[in-house]
Amino acid sequence: MSVNSISPSDRTARKLYLSVALAALAWLVAYSAILPLANWLVYSLLHLSHDRLGESVAFFLYDVPKILLLLSGMIFVISLIRTFFSPERTRALLGGKREGVGNVLAAGLGIVTPFCSCSAVPLFIGFVESGIPLGVTFSFLIAAPTINEVAIVMLLGLFGWKIAGLYIASGLVIAILAGFIIGRLKLERYVEDFVWKIHQQGTLEGEKLSWSVRIQRAWESVKDILKKVWLYVLVAIAIGAAIHGYVPESALVGIMGKQAWWSVPAAVLIGIPLYSNAAGMIPIVSALIEKGASLGTALAFMMAVVGLSLPEAIILRRVLKPQLLVIFFGTVALAIILTGYLFNWIM
Length: 347
Description:
Low-confidence stretches: 199-206
Helix content: over 70%
Number of domains: 2
Mean pLDDT: 75
Largest sheet: none
Strand content: under 5%
Order of helices and strands: HHHHHHHHHHHHHHHH
Oligomer: single chain
Number of helices: 16
């Protein structure tokens, strides 16, 4: 085929693919240069010593670009995957599934589908209207915010495959068991009456997108999400840097160490009224662990902040009566506490 015979659409697609390949190469080069560049800036250019101030500044200058790069790369990949899913397709995959199998499938879909607490109400209504069992619906709603793809990639970058894998596994167990328990309790009477009367009309046919469109949408998602979270990242890393340099190790060990049996439930209770996303929590968790806090306690704190936030409770109150809302949050909180103890025991 001659060059002249290539259609304009094919040329555009090839340019797009080449741009993606070059961007991936630039990402790898930048990621490998972060640590030596941060050390050069702090200790050679600024002439800071290896004291509390120097280590805090080095921590900040290293973690900010590292986490932003990890976020951009993972958001792009996850956004590509998400173009194959829609609320209608998700409901179709879960429809007709019985409890047990349905809970497992719902929890798995919760990891890769683009839903958070802000979309909890329309998703809940759509799932119930589609005939999906209440317990299966809750497995999805628990997994979607709790097993966060941002948290996965940041845990992977900071702690390695073992910790990231344990985080995914524990989140899946929480979502599956909590949803199964809620389903066994037969709590449909505690769903607001108007939910059962809503009939949503939706097509189950997903969009058929070209790879060029999927890549463009993924890139737009990267820009959109980074605009929303970059400030959280900067503030969180600044807090983490202060903890890293100035908080005494003995203080954190006494409060969040394995020896303090009450630390896990206390961390969960403290985390519930707070509100942040995984991007804002991971740097703080990293600094806490580095200073001597136990892994299970720190992760339980993070999962409570992300998965049991007050804004989500307020949103879900529109469709759940107080009894079911309390049962839902109590079940998830207990599962997170048990997971924290499990991590402390294993690690």
